[in-house]
Write a sequence for this structure.
């Protein structure tokens, strides 16, 4: 049974369809300008926004017509139509709730693809196993939402599990959904790696970045990069490739280091490393801007006691609790199988009015 589920805040949401229609009209005028494609990037952004906004307005107006038709039928007072009208109204309400949820995803990068990284923290082999459990959880969640995933880098543990993994999650609103998962995740369970079968606490750090869609969002000069190549490593650190296909890129101004070794091609690993680097630099830029505005403090947290955003308890009872929102459930198995939507929605509702 779920406890402390946040109440729906439907009153906050103003969809402003007339405002969307006014913006749509302006974009349609811009799209017809003869000099639009003189700046291809600006033109592409204009056409993408135009397409999204046109679809949104058309869908809202269609929903409005459905509601009006249902009310007209209800006004007839025909008892034979009662069930049909009720089903239609239920469907309309579900669609409005879905759109209310999507309205929470209004940040500048919420519609973008995401980079998801998981790092094992304190706890040795148990934490490496925990990191792999989280990898499975997010892959199952992405699959359920028809989001494409691609493992860009994977470092396996010495005995079991993984030290870290970097995953590209591609699809509409991937970053908007997954940004709620950024932070330390704690697991409490009876350890399968302890001969005495004692209870252990493990930590893993989850990082989430929006993928960079435009070159002007992040400016990287060639002289700012140090690129090294080496042989890919497997479990225990042994080399699994004869050729130096793994790539390490260091961004000298910030000290950010990105390693990609999952592909057999050095070129592909380099491209993937640059994707991750751009995403991390964009996130750094966003946090610096937010700090200047004193809106939030973008601090890096260590994977250790006291800093977790969510706890997953498998022993002596089952419970998953998000410490930011208070939302919790006793069905830990379902959560670890990818059932995260209630946690994501609770977080998004709790951050209304905060930067994305």
């Amino acid at each position: 049974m779920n406890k402390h589920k946040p109440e729906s805040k439907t009153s906050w949401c103003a969809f402003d369809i007339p405002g969307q229609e006014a913006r749509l009209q302006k974009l349609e005028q811009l799209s017809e300008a003869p000099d639009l494609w003189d700046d291809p990037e600006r033109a592409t952004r204009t056409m993408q926004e135009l397409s999204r906004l046109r679809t949104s307005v058309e869908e809202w107006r269609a929903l409005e017509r459905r509601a009006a038709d249902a009310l007209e039928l209800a006004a007839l007072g025909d008892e034979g139509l009662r069930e049909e009208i009720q089903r239609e109204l239920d469907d309309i309400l579900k669609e409005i709730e879905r759109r209310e949820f999507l309205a929470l995803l209004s940040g500048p990068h919420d519609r973008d693809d995401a980079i998801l990284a998981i790092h094992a923290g304190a706890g040795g082999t148990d934490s490496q196993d925990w990191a792999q459990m989280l990898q499975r959880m997010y892959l199952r969640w992405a699959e359920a939402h028809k989001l494409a995933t691609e493992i860009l880098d994977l470092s396996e543990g010495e005995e079991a599990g993984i030290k870290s993994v970097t995953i590209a999650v591609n699809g509409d609103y991937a970053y908007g959904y997954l940004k709620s998962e950024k932070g330390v995740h704690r697991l409490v369970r009876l350890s399968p790696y302890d001969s005495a079968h004692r209870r252990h606490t493990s930590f893993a750090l989850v990082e989430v970045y929006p993928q960079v869609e435009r070159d002007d969002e992040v400016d990287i000069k060639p002289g700012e990069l140090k690129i090294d190549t080496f042989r890919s490593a497997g479990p225990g650190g042994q080399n699994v490739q004869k050729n130096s296909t793994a790539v390490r890129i260091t961004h000298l101004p910030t000290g950010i280091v990105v390693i990609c070794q999952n592909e057999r091609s050095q070129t592909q690993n380099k491209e993937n490393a640059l994707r991750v680097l751009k995403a991390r630099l964009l996130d750094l830029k966003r946090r610096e801007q937010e700090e200047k505005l004193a809106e939030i403090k973008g601090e890096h947290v260590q994977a250790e006691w006291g800093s977790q955003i969510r706890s997953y308890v498998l022993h002596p009872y089952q419970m998953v609790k998000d410490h930011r929102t208070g939302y919790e459930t006793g069905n830990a198995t379902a959560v670890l199988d990818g059932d995260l939507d209630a946690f994501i929605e609770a977080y998004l509702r709790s951050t209304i009015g905060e930067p994305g």
Confidence is low (pLDDT under 50) at residues 1-14, 294-298. The two ends are 31 Å apart (CA to CA).
